[in-house]
Amino acid sequence: MDRIVIRGEARLEGEVQVSGSKNSALALMAASILGQGETRLRNVPRLRDVEAMLELLRALGAKADWSGAHQVCIDGSTISSAEAPYDLVRKMRASFMVLGPLLARFGTARVSEPGGCAIGVRPIDQHLKGLEALGAKIRLDHGYVEVSTTELRGGRFAFDVSTVNGTQNVMMAASLADGETIIENAAQEPEVVELAEFLGRMGADVSGAGSDRIRIRGVASLRGAAHQVSGDRIEAGTLLAAAAITRGDVTIRQIDSSTLESTLDKLRELGAVVEAGPDWARLKVDGPLQPLQVVTAPFPGYPTDMQAQIMAVLATVEGSSVVTERVFENRFMHVPEFQRMGADITLSGRAAHLRGVDRLMGAPVMATDLRASAGLILAGLAARGDTIVNRVYHIDRGYERIEEKLRSLGAEIRREG
Ligand code: EPZ
Description:
The protein has helices at residues 22-31, 48-60, 86-89, 99-106, 125-133, 164-174, 190-202, 233-245, 261-269, 307-314, 335-340, 370-382, 393-396, 402-408; strands spanning 3-7, 13-17, 35-36, 38-42, 63-68, 71-75, 83-84, 108-112, 137-141, 144-148, 156-158, 180-184, 205-207, 213-217, 222-223, 226-228, 249-253, 273-277, 280-284, 293-295, 320-324, 344-348, 351-355, 364-366, 386-390, 412-416. It is of the alpha/beta class. A hairpin with a 2-residue loop joins strand 22 and strand 23 (351-355). The longest helix has 13 residues, at 48-60. The relative contact order is 0.16. The model has no long low-confidence stretch (mean pLDDT 97). The structure holds ligand EPZ.
């Protein structure tokens, strides 16, 4: 099994390009089910999760494959099944986002419940509540969610919690429903905005995405469309945090820096010099860094997907910091691994209390989930000696060639296995 070996203490310097957004690409690929004809997505990252979504679309009967190094072509016209099997959905939770599009397209869908994951129970009640508000009948059957309707009708409802994929699932279903849908307490993440933009290219009528109130006027049909996927804001934040933990100077390109604001604000508060333009950002450390209070929250708050990375940085910053995880209930699996590397962290409830140490120590560590593994790699970049990150399949789910990108910035990092 692959593992990544890092010899720490190299200061990162230089420029690197950010890949396309995993979470946006996955939602747009699910949306392609809604359209007649071909969908062509450019700047799609080469990731395990994207492969899993392609495999699921093919299992439904779509023609779906790579048509270029970072381009996928999907033709949903040939879809013949509205069932997403357990074996495919269990590989990747985001598969659950085919529920809304299949229901809207075929009036019925049967999708395996995604179940919980390392970072939390992750219920789907809000997805179902939203589809029910559009007139869907919901049945749970042997681990599957079955939804059906004679006719999807526009409706008004409010999410009890801000949910990204829940908002996206309902937006996609409502785009072919009869009449107008108003979603209150909608998620405001950039991936929701990008999906609305893409649905617009397919012929849908969506407004208000990016705010907590989204209006969708249903249309009779949608067509395939072409779209350039935006840069991955979490990969971007991870690369800037890598610069911070090595006290380096790194510029990232091909990223809409407006999607990074809360991350850039936190890195500025840390004491790093942070500059940004429309499609780039730069972080340079030229003085001591400050301890921080970080609380994760839905967008535009500080992203939970950047929690492990900022914790790794704060483990090396003199003074007391507190990181509070408010989005997922079990997203501190990386803490025992940081402690193995000599980090001084105490957990109490949803808060991690850190006292910065002079130097982390290289050690063999175990990745538990995608973003935890990014945090471990960052800690390895700053540690004395070698860090061996095991189970790197987690990182391949969401980061394209991360070790090559870090090596291009001066890191001593290699993949083994
Ligand atoms: C998306 O997951 C992202 N995944 C996650 O990124 C990200 O961490 C998360 O949003 C939050 O930003 C994709 O887009 C593929 P949520 P999602 O529904 O939509 C609760 C990564 O590392 N909730 O916004 O599944 C839920 O338990 C991944 O790339 C309900 O209670 O997250 C959580 O506490 C990890 N009922 C909160 O809402 C529901 O029906 C937010 O989850 C749905 C969610």
